[in-house]
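Supplementary Text 2. Reproducibility record for the structural model of the 435-residue chain.

All settings were left at their defaults, and a single model was retained for analysis rather than an ensemble. We include the record here because the model underlies the residue-level annotations in Supplementary Table 4.
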Amino acid sequence: MKYLNRICVIGLGYVGLPTATTFASRGFNVIGVDVDVNKVEAVNSGRCYIKELGLDVLLRNVVSRGLLRATTDAVEAVKQSDAVIIAVPTPVKDNVADLSYLKDALEVVKKGLHRGMLVVIESTIPPRTTVNFAKPLLEESGLEVEEDFFLAHVPERIAPGKAIEELLNMPRVIGGVGPKSTEKALELYGRVNPNLYPTDATTAEFVKLIENTFRDLNIAYANLLALMAERLGIDVYEAIRLANTHRRVNIHLPGAGVGGPCLTKDPYMLASLFEEFWGTELIRLARKINEYMPKHTVDIVERALKDFGLSIKDARVAVLGAAYKGGVDDTRESPAKYVVQELRKRAARVTVYDPYTTESFGAERAFTLEDAVKDADVVLIVTDHPEFKEIDLNTVRELVRHSIIVDGRRVIEPHKAIKHGFRYYGIGYGRAYKL
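Retained model, structure tokens:
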């Protein structure tokens, strides 16, 4: 087991950087690899470019101790390593997984592959990719898996904002292409996280997709209930809260849309396995519901403005939140992007404010909450940042032009907004009381 001391992590994004840093903090000598020179330079200077709790301090520590360095020379990094962890993007194009980044990474690994090496794919991939795609490609080197080198799939389980905590404590599924590969991967990850569950590579690939698809299905169900509740004139949050008092019920919460790099693509990756199988339409329908919610959010904005005798054209809309979830700076596939685009398509004047990121998706960016809401006709909350839960509604009320709040995440309790003189609208809130 001692030979597994030198690790190469390919891909220094939201998964790779925390992974490299965490392994280094456990005494491994880690080389991070990325094609982005700016990321490489940042790592080597101990500068963290991802807003992740505790990561900046940990990164500076391991870099200063010489346990982590970064390079763009992937082949040399692989040659110097005992184990390689691949954490590159696997986007979905036309509802099918794009494995081009993975293929590029595997080609690099093949050039530096040597006897005794463990290769781990953490990137989310369709079932059988490790066995039918990665294995034969790596064996073109002349080395044989399970005899000369080892290959496993260990799907990442990282929630932005909790990456370090989850790398250390979240149960991990360890799937080798054979028993020897599984054992080697268990040895490696066991030095970082004790909560490991061994299986085969194809099962591990399937597990990753079904757990994210389950969440997407659950959210879609909540969003469907929200749309129904609006027509019934009731509050879906109250209904879900009461339904969840049943011990065997756990309905998620609705919102302005589903974002992030996983839930927006993994269901499509799963459904594409069996295009001819009618049952997978359930997965696609859930995606359609969740993809509809940003547009529905803008429909609520337009309806709210009409209640005040206003047109959405040239209306000033303050969008609070650009990140796809609260407390992080990650804007990948954020519902806010599609909300802003739809608002601008309808000729609204949009200002975006987010305390975690400078992204505004082409709209005007505000540097403070006060600047964002000044003279706004509508305050639209898209991201559930903790800062937004502490908004001083009296101050906002004095700054806005019209007292309309559209809450896409139930950040503000309706009764509180109404008490402060606002007309409150929200996803699944069928009780839009008039002033």
